[in-house]
Amino acid sequence: MSIVILAEKPSQAKAYAEAFPVAKKTKHFIELAPNEVFPSGAVITWGIGHLVELKAPAEYDSAWKRWKLDVLPMIPSKYEFKVAKGKWEQFQEVKKLLKGADVLINACDVDREGSNIFYSILRQAGVRNKPIQRLWINSLEADEIRAGFRQLQDNAKDLRMFKEAETRQISDWLVGMNASRLYTVLLKQQGLNEVMSIGRVQSPTVFMIYERQCEIENFKPKKFYELIGKFNAAQGEYSGKAKVKKETYEEALAILTQAGIAENTPLPGTIQKVTKKMKRNLPPKLHSLSTLQQKANRLWKFSPKMVLETVQKLYEKKLVSYPRSDCQFITPAEFAYLKEQLPAFQDIMKANFEPASLAPSKRYVDASKVEEHYAIIPTKTVPTVAKLAKLSDPEKRLYVEIMRTTLAMFHRDYMYEETTIETNVQDIVFYSVGKVEKDRGFQELWPQKKDDKEPPKLPIVEQDEEVAALIHVHEGETKPPKPFTEGQLIQMMKTCGKLVDDETESDILKEVEGIGTEATRAGIIETIKRHEYIQVTKNIVSLTPKGRVLCQVITGSLLASPTMTAKWETYLRKIGEGTGTQEAFFASVEKFLRHLIDTTPAMVAKTDLSEAKEAATPVSSTKPIVTCPACKEGQLIEHKSFYGCTNYKGGCKFTVSKIIAQKKISPKQLTDLVTNGETAELKGFKSKKGNPFNAKLMLENNKVTFAFADK
């Protein structure tokens, strides 16, 4: 009986082969020698990711090659697939092996895309009616691989997951191909020559960034006024704040006046109460992919994509468990080996602490919360110092973070004493809160940063003690929301249910954990970067002019709402569970597309695109814009990222950047600047902190400067 094992990619196949004696290796497969698990041997072959993909529109109908409204919607009567470009040779070898096998084993990644890769190759190869089994493991360690192959599952669940993945793949094709053409053609009619890529998940993601940017731009700071006291007790000084916040200085001052208090004038106060409470912080939960992406982005500004790729390498090096996990729990089996290896893990991390408990806690260990994958944890393999030294810097940082979070599960809680002093001055109570560390507990595992140092301690005081007080009115100002970092964007995609007002829709989003999946969110962010909808500068995500155009024209449509993709995801899960059908889902998508095609032209026509159009349309012409103010001989023309003088070879080095303080400068604004020495007041500049501001641009000694209205 011949057995063929299909892995998702060569590295995965190599890891499987290392768990068994190998008889032969070729460019396209590895032959295993007879062994305890496979008495007659077996053959491992592999895909290169997706060997098979959906055909392009023009391959169904030549009329669909044209980007025209009259061919929409493009809905094939039957969806057809083809071998992906550049993968024909590997596909042919895999096909030959699959056809000659008696038994097939799907050993692709244990998620719906892994199921999709296996069955799409099988279908394209024309292989039918062969027994199929499923390998389901979370680690590439040799003993885990052998155990997995001894306990193969049937393919009933696998087939449902394939149907779910294929449905998602086709529906994304339908939305992407139709909506992208629809918006591109309609915007071109409005004079905007941009290819607009539209996606079920990527478009609502861009829209969330747009909404945050609008909040920042429209934010109006408000002043507020608080009462602050500085106190001198027998054992030292401290400060406090009254529970008063007023919109004007006069209102806050009136409270002081009414109490007979003059600002900054010494007067007596009394400590009316001192409260001490012992508080504790529990160790962090184990990492899922998204929590690891968020923390790595916060600590080291690693992009979500970089984190996923790096943890994938650690997985292939057999150091950590499966990376594309959305779970923060483990089962008793994983806890058992972690407990057993605890001394070795402590030794490699130089973390010598007495475990607080060796019993499993429901905070970390709960088999009912583990579905396909458990949390990202170290494997049983304890790396040598030499192996750790060979890891790249990002690999080392992420491995250490995963290890520290795992060790924290066995560590003590972080304990501190919180002291609250209530100081009464003329019947106005001021509150002072101090914190004293009592036991760093699990925080000992992480290096202590400057901003983590213990805050200044409050002096020792007693109830009814008299203190000298100085009271004043403090002016504060509300701050705008901050732009997203890439790590926060992952969190926003996962928790966008919190932003939806409708309770039912919010519940749906929470149930499916927002938009995208743990495995796809990093790719979605990379996609919207590639389509130039967003840019990331020093880890800060901002919308480009093209991204703003997209959001303006999809405002009000379901493409702007995370709810649509959440509802789709809910039904896709039903298909995976066997309670939903592909036919019903496609009917819903087709209905949505027809509605979109009917309603979008009117929505685009009434959208004011003048400012966005000017900023987003690329000009590749070398047409002169204005005479150079520096040499007076050349003309300024547009380059990719700046305006420069045509007399460059003659020695003129005058240039003006096309983007100043994150705002794109148009040819008309350049002409005003050069001709008049200044522009009109322009909106949309952003400071380095992401705060919006308005200003004129001025040309002084051939240097561009800002001029502010209030100066």
Automatic annotation (TrEMBL):
Every Toprim domain range: 2-142
Entry-linked CDD domains: TOP1Ac, TOPRIM_TopoIA_TopoIII
Catalysed reactions, semicolon-separated: ATP-independent breakage of single-stranded DNA, followed by passage and rejoining
Pfam annotation, one family: Toprim
Domain Topo IA-type catalytic: 158-597
Keyword Thylakoid: no
UniProt GO MF annotations: DNA binding; DNA topoisomerase type I (single strand cut, ATP-independent) activity; metal ion binding
Keyword list, A-Z: DNA-binding, Isomerase, Magnesium, Metal-binding, Topoisomerase
GO BP terms in the entry: DNA recombination; DNA repair; DNA topological change
EC number of this enzyme: 5.6.2.1
Gene3D superfamilies: 3.40.50.140, Topoisomerase I, domain 2, Topoisomerase I, domain 3, Topoisomerase I, domain 4
Matching InterPro entries: Topo_IA, Topo_IA_2, Topo_IA_AS, Topo_IA_cen, Topo_IA_cen_sub1, Topo_IA_cen_sub2, Topo_IA_cen_sub3, Topo_IA_core_domain
GO cellular component, as recorded: cytoplasmic replication fork
Protein family: Belongs to the type IA topoisomerase family.
Record's protein name: DNA topoisomerase
Organism name: Candidatus Kurthia intestinigallinarum
Record lineage: Bacteria, Bacillati, Bacillota, Bacilli, Bacillales
